[in-house]
Amino acid sequence: MTRKTFINDSTYIVRVKLVRPQVKIDNRTIFFKGQRVSLSGIDAGVLLKEKLRITLGYYWLNNNLSAYQKTIEGVDYDRQLKMNYGSINTEFIYKNTRYFSLGMPLDFGFGNNELRYKNSITGEVQSKESGFVFLTDFGLSLAFKPIRWIGIKGIVGYRKTIFNQVKDFHFDGPFTSIGIYIDVREIIKDVKMFKLKKRYRKNTNQLGTAVDLITD
Fold first, then answer.
1. For 19-185, CATH number?
2. What angle do helix axes 3-13 and 184-215 make, rounded to 10 degrees?
3. Domain residue spans of the chain
């Protein structure tokens, strides 16, 4: 492999691509009526032209809501919330540097939520409601990228319930998010560059050995 071929091949590998696959593991804390409720999730999709992130996600939670605890005839009952939903996640990246990026995420989630009152001692279910839920999250994001293909992303935002079949329950409130995202394109690029450099060094060493044999 000549030096010119190496330069051409490496330039092709590191070229800017319009579509970059990405994956993110997410952990959100929702502040609901004075309580911190944990929500976990994962999403996968693409980053378009370094500006628009579009992904599909899945989120879940299972928590007792302290604001809805009640006592009936001396017996304490906890209200448990279970939620599982898919989401369409978008994010406009308006500032992107080597180590930091700033964005404005807007997510739409749709799935199922279930509320049940349970005896806090025996676990017996007194009542249960469930149904379809449609909600949205929006806010501001900051990503730190110590390595090109992996980063830490934080979000501060607000959650709003648009529709819920469970009457008189709106899971609204501010939230924070901390997650790890992986840029699959950068991993592929590094692997290809490693293989190219290895092949170039091998060919260079073979050429050097041949020259030594001829000149000895």
1. 2.40.160.20
2. 180
3. 19-185
